[in-house]
Amino acid sequence: MLQNLQFHLPSSTDPLPVTRRGLPLLHDPWLNKGTAFTPEERIALGLSGLLPPHSADMDEQVHRVMENYAHLTDPLAKYTFLTALADRNMTLFYRVLLDNLLEMTPIMYTPTVGYACQQFGHIYRRNRGMYDGSRILGLGDLGANGMGIPIGKLVLYVACAGLHPERTLPILLDVGTDNTDLLDDPLYLGLTHHRVHGEEFYEIVDEFVQAATKRWPHVLIQWEDFTNDKAFPLLKRYRDEILCFNDDIQGTGSVVLAGLFAAMRIREEHLSDQRIVFCGAGSAAVGIADMICAGIADEHSLTLEDARKLVWMVDSKGLVTTTRGGKLEDHKIAYARDEEPAKTLLEIVQRVQPTILIGASGHARTFSEDVVKSMHKTCAKPIIFALSNPTTKAECTAEEAYGWTNGNAIFASGSPFPPVRIEGRIFVPGQGNNMFIFPGVGLGAVACGASKVTDEMFFTAAKTLAHMVTAEELHAGTIYPDLRNIRQISLAIASAVCRLAWDEGFA
């Protein structure tokens, strides 16, 4: 959750008053500078004798942190180490993170944060955020352990878009859990009753929204990791009433659309010429499909209905059709095709002959060698997005996608894969990470005082991101820009969002 940015800040040369002294100051991560306090500051702030005599500058502190970090090999241990650093010195934590963004983003967010959530009750050290969840995409019902996700997302708002961390607040709505392992775990920290559903659930969310918007009238709420039966209704319930968006639905859709726009630059084709098969039909998959179809409709002046005819959606029962019997979930109805059912992904690929295959199923290895090679038979440069997180749940690996297509695949994943060498050529897989999108959209929305967050903002963000991929990156098969330029990327997206909001009259 982001507080509105319309507040006064002193100039960079103005001192800020500090009322704490001695140990209380050292225990405050927002004020603590550790060994960086100068001799004069130590006297003025009552720190004499409480720190080693040597006064270290920021660079020396970073060196010390990185030396200890290098001794760790386990990703969870690295996550715990960095979290402990944030708990004692927030400024140093963000300096270390920004200096090592490529290396540490997979630790503080996808994929390690998922495992950290699973172990949340076992590695808990210090309070962070507010507990007033739901399940985590790809990880299932984690109850109160899901707090690691909003904490990680807001870390990225600071690192990627430069928001001040004190203007952010991670919140988890604990409505119980149906995960029996958690209910039986003596170290589980959440409510030990089964999940609340129905009207009682929505009353809890309504109460939270009313309290948050009363306390911060211009707050931006980012919804995250709700089950399919609640994610879409919640977005529909609030999107025109308060400043909010669902990153799983809109952010994921936007980052995938950006990757497809860049892939079209490689293939010199249009999205309207493609046949798209989705493996998975949950909130993420439908959010992606909605964004793609909106992009196709905008690009070629088609109706959404015509654009949806280019999409085949596959769930656990096979091809989503109107003819297979049984009741379809509401969010799947728009993509139900009026054709014969099909059970297996291979059968569907052979029938449809797709040019784009998108995985958002949460199930590993669903893109088998037979499926990928069958796709490649009818598509010279197949676009394969294996988006499920973490890498152990990816529909296929980068090495498999490139190897099974003789290096002709255009590949992206949700979690990072290392570069792949095939016949002397190095392929750099793209990572369809939402951090390319949501920090810039959130920054733009609060900076311009938008009254709502729209799908058009995410469509604009996708186009902006796609245009920032260089010709050199495209030649290497990479369809997303260098993550080290994330501050510039977020600024460009935020600026585009502000212009759109102004042009549309809701800034």
Task: Record the SSE blueprint.
Layout: H1 22-26, H2 39-44, H3 58-69, H4 75-88, H5 90-99, H6 101-108, H7 112-118, H8 120-123, E1 130-131, E2 135-136, E3 140-141, H9 148-161, E4 171-172, H10 180-183, H11 198-215, E5 221-223, H12 228-238, E6 244-246, H13 247-267, E7 276-279, H14 283-300, H15 304-308, E8 311-315, E9 318-319, H16 345-352, E10 356-359, H17 369-378, E11 383-386, H18 398-404, E12 410-413, E13 420-422, E14 425-427, E15 430-431, H19 438-447, H20 455-467, H21 471-475, H22 486-504
Parallel strand pairs: 1-4, 5-6, 7-8, 7-10, 10-11, 11-12, 12-15
Antiparallel strand pairs: 2-3, 8-9, 13-14
Helix pairs in contact: 4-5, 4-7, 9-19, 13-14, 13-20, 16-17, 19-22, 20-22
Cα Rg: 24 Å
Through-space gap between termini: 19 Å
Share of helix, binned: 40-55%
Helix/strand/pairing category: alpha/beta
Number of helices: 22
Low-confidence stretches: 3-11, 133-139
Order of the strands making up the biggest sheet: 9-8-7-10-11-12-15
Beta-strand fraction estimate: 5-15%
Major sheet size, sense and barrel closure: 7 strands, mixed
**How does the overall form come out from the CA principal axes?**
globular
- The count of strands amounts to 15
Mean pLDDT: 89
